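On clarity, I found the account of how folds are encoded harder to follow than it need be. Since the whole study asks how a given chain folds, the encoding of that fold should be made plain. For the editor and my fellow referees, an illustration may be useful. An entry of this sort, consisting of the sequence and the corresponding backbone structure tokens, reads as follows:

:::
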Amino acid sequence: MAHDSKIAAMNRTGIGMSPVDGEQMVQSAREGIPSMEGSAAGVQTVREQYISERTGIGSMPPPTTLKGVAKAAAALVRDQRPNVFLDRLGERLAFERTGVRLYDALICHISVLTDKTLGPTMNELRTIRDEEHRHFELIRNTIETMGADPTVLTPAADAVSVEARGLLQILTDPRSSRSQCLHAILVAELSDNDGWKMLIDLARSLGHDDLVGRFEQAARAEENHLAKVRGWLTAQVNADTKEGRVGVEA
């Protein structure tokens, strides 16, 4: 039998799809005997124990070059806490790298699901993708100028990489619709905008005045990305509403 890939399988996740079986399942759960002792309070106790014994997500490495040692020593003398700044630079580096991959995935998706009446165009997406890459290079060069290693996965970079994993899963899933992909990009751009604002404030407070202007330029580009993505998503949702469409486009 031929298989039409555009026909989605029936959604059977709700208990209302089978009222009789659903009622029996609820009754069985009430009558069942737990396989082990425990409660929500017990789960919380275990979590609290793990938290109290934590060692943290990753660590900051010592400088590996003479330049790095000298820069770190000079920063400590000025009380600029170089590790805090380098950790946040590592976070932005990781997120900008992920941003490039997100837009690569969106470009692939939209190239198949092109809609000239709604946008985005390939040129718009490639422009944003290239700007994300330039922001990555800006942060990489900043880290190297400070005498640090841009290949290090800092604690904040480790955490933000985990946060972004779900966005990549949406954008690389062939089942995702245009609106689902654009929503994932919107989440990324919202985080990206706040991340740059925080980095600018941190650079200014630590006396890195030479970096503030360059970071502000990147932040303005990110604000433009956010405005465009919001517009594309709004237009797509309105079109979906007009067509009564949920999920994959016809």
